[in-house]
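Our working data are protein records whose layout never changes between entries. Getting from the letters to the tokens is the skill we practise here. To make this concrete, we reproduce a full record directly below:
***
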Amino acid sequence: MIRFKKNDYVKVDYTGYLDGDAFDGGSATDTMIDVANNCDATQKTNYIDGFSDGLVGAKVGDEVSSMMTFPENYQSSDLAGKKTTFKFKIKGIYKPVTMDTLTDDMVADAFTEQKITTKKGSGCICTAGTRKAGRKFQVSGKYQRS
């Protein structure tokens, strides 16, 4: 079984708890996290320090927790300065893909049905109707299942 490493992306469902109760705005499903940068892998929005620390070493199917403290100046006074726990369910582990690491084999494997190929040096891949293939490879988010 593949274990998550610091430079991988991980797809999770998560819920935040304050004093044992889930709090409003503290949960999400099918979220792709870039743990090395502690941010959303597709939108690149940052998380609170410590948010994703508990994910390293996990494998698909694991449920793990991270304890963290919200900053004193956090916008929600209900959470500012408070210790919380986030529980994560690991749904997938992915390797970041860049144009430098993208190969013809990766494209062929992910988009067999669409018969898409790459053009060396073009800097882009045109993909129409790739939602189905996106389960394995997503060009816009630049990740590939491990």
